[in-house]
Amino acid sequence: MTSVQVDKQHDGSEAAGTASGEGEGYQRGLGARQIQMIAIGGAIGTGLFLGAGKAISKAGPSLILAYAIAGLVIFFIMRALGELLMYRPVSGSFSEYAREFVGPFAGFVTGWTYWLFWVVTGITEVTAAATYMTYWWNIPQWVSALVFTVILYGANLISVKLFGELEFWFSMVKVTAIIGMILICAGILTIGFSDAGDTASMTLLWSEGGFFPQGIGGTVMTLQIVMFAFLAVELVGVTAGESKDPKVTLPKAINTVPWRIAVFYVGALIMILSVVPWTHFKPGISPFVAAFEQMGLGVGAAIVNFVVLTAALSSCNSGMYSTGRMLRDLALNGQGPKLFTRLTKSGTPLIGTTFSAGLMLVGVWINYQWPGDAFDKVVSFATISGMWAWIMILVSQIRYRAKADRGELPQSEFKAPGAPFTSWFALLFIFGVIVMMGIDKEARVSLYCAPLWALILGVSYLVLKARNPENAAFKR
């Protein structure tokens, strides 16, 4: 439940529920199969299918180590989130926990920042999906963007089950593509077929200038690209209020994080870089496309284009889902317009989802008309805003654990191993990545919009506090 639902009823008719999340008005339509694939899909996106090419060119084979280390940090973040979810599984997720354990202002900032993250991501992904469509058909970009947005918007309004089913199949495409690539590379290494069969060898991981061809510094600087690839892995936490038996399905989904990263990132990169020398990869070119070309498989470009299309649609679908839930959580806590609390009969946040989808359409139009540097700066803000959610998850877990250990709150049934030390380590790692973003000229743009957004939120909160002081205090 949200922090003010103990005293309030949903839309004046539905009693507030218990700490387990009952009574939020949502329907628990997401089963174990869908939760697992949402968790898997959240960790696999265009950051792997497209962005890894740039990272390989900067780090060489040592990128494998960067993904392994970053993957460990992501696991610490997800286990911290899991501990909080088992303490109180709510749809507001980390925004709720920030509100409870850090303060009302932290919850306000986290909710609105995560909402903005998905709006901006949705804008870029639906635009990207429209661009990918031109590979097969000469369709105006705005037409494809409009069709995709309307379809995903409609699916999210029909029911949460339909959202989950779409995400299941989107994720299935991505998983199948990666496993297929791994099997093809394994066949080349063992049997030696295709044009790459004569040169393919595990020795390519260290024979082309060593494992650290650009030095350890080059590897460290790619951590920001690697962490960007993992953004949205926390989405499974937003599903807590609509998951069937969340205390069973969510821990299982979170515990699959290590093997997901080991197979889909570390495993895939080991196989690809054993077949194609790292020097063949370039920024802006998918490593999957480059690998297919090296193998002499002409269908590779079409296959990867279809996969990145589904990855983009999956991200936009997730954006539609999460923005409505975040706006409703803010509204229920008096930190957003009350009209965002309304749900359809199927239990979906109608107004919040519609408002967010409308902004995504406006963004697509702006991107089409003025695709200049100003828009790119706003898009880059997605990176730092996504990391803010991770920071709040870790800080909230550290404070929750301290209270639980003192007996002030019940212990979670799913404790994060090694916490709070692992949470502190993850926090330091994230702050280190942010510092590297400030050093890197290309990534520095991600930080430019943060002060402006912080100023907007600060002023907005002061106005909110002046008009309604009780909404500036956490209540359960």
From TrEMBL:
It is found in: Cell membrane. Residues 35-465 form the Amino acid permease/ SLC12A domain. This is Amino acid permease. It is a multi-pass membrane protein. The keyword Translocase does not apply. Its main location: membrane. InterPro entries: AA-permease/SLC12A_dom (IPR004841), Amino_acid_permease_CS (IPR004840). Belongs to the amino acid-polyamine-organocation (APC) superfamily. Amino acid transporter (AAT) (TC 2.A.3.1) family. Residues 1-25 are annotated as: Disordered. PANTHER family: GABA PERMEASE (PTHR43495), L-ASPARAGINE PERMEASE (PTHR43495:SF1). Keywords: Amino-acid transport, Cell membrane, Membrane, Transmembrane, Transmembrane helix, Transport. The chain crosses the membrane at residues 37-56, 62-81, 101-121, 141-163, 175-194, 214-236, 257-276, 296-316, 347-366, 378-400, 421-439, 445-464. It comes from Streptomyces ficellus. It comes from the Bacteria. The keyword Translocase does not apply. It holds the Pfam family AA_permease.
